[in-house]
Structure formats: C-alpha cells, structure tokens
Amino acid sequence: MADPHWTSYVGMATGIAGAITGLYSLHKANKLKSLDLRLEIKKSLNDIYINLPQAYKILNDANNTHMAVASMKGRIQSGTISIWKKDVEADKDKLNQLSQEINNIDLKCAKLNQNELESMIIEIHKIKVNLLDIKGRYAEVIRSHK
C-alpha cells in the first residue's frame, strides 16, 4: 500500500479545524441572537413600564372629566354612565392584569432559551398593543371633552 501524501494530512487537519470553527461560530451566533432577543424584550418592557403609569393616569383623568361633564349636563344617573363606570372598571382590571403579566415576564426572561425568547417577544407585543389601546381610548375621551 502506498504511503499517503502529506497533503491529505493537511486537508484532514484543515477540515477538522474548519468544522470546529464552524461549530464555535454557530454557538457564538446563537448566543448573540439570544442576547439580541433579550435586549429587544428589555426595550419593550421599558416602553411598557413607561406607558403603564401614564395609562392609569389618563384613565383616571378621563373618568373624572367624563363624570364631571355628565354631572354638569344632569346625566349622572343615566344608563350610559352606568355602562361607562363598568367599562372603566373593566379597563382598570385589564391594566392590573397587564401589569402582573409584565412583572412575571421580567422575572423569567433570564432563564429562557432562544425559541422561548421569540415567543416572549410576541406576548410582550400583545400586552403593549392592549396597553396602548386603553391609553389611546381614554386620551381620546379627554380630547373630546375639551
């Protein structure tokens, strides 16, 4: 049998080195992607932490304004005010629920893998959309009474 040529050893060593480098690069890329996802989650959570107290304030201000206008117009005992009060309470409950969900997400974020982080971003987006919806609706009530 013929002796293998030295180039085959070089080729084999290069192939092994390439495979190791490729695996390391893949591991590094996944680690960076997870870091990017965590940063995206933290930014979204920060947006929510800023908007949540504002949403509570706008809801309360809109409620006070709406009730004052209804009182001034003599409609404080009307059925629409009864419905308004129920809606306000439901939205306060919704804000409390969103606040609790955000606190739970923030606590478990560090332990999640890449797929779970991607799912978490979707959940956070849903919370943010609900929060901004409530905030926007009550801001519009305040604008309409000015």
Describe the structure.
The protein has 146 residues and is mostly helical. Helices cover 88% and strands 0% of the residues. It is rod-shaped and about 100 Å long. The protein has one domain.
- Total separate domains: 1
Shape: rod-shaped
SS-based class: mainly alpha
What ranges have pLDDT less than 50 throughout 5 or more consecutive residues?
A: none
Mean of residue pLDDT values: 83
Task: Give the key terms.
146 residues; 3 helices
List the helices and strands and how they pair.
Blueprint: H1 6-72, H2 79-108, H3 114-144
Brief overview:
The chain is mainly alpha-helical.
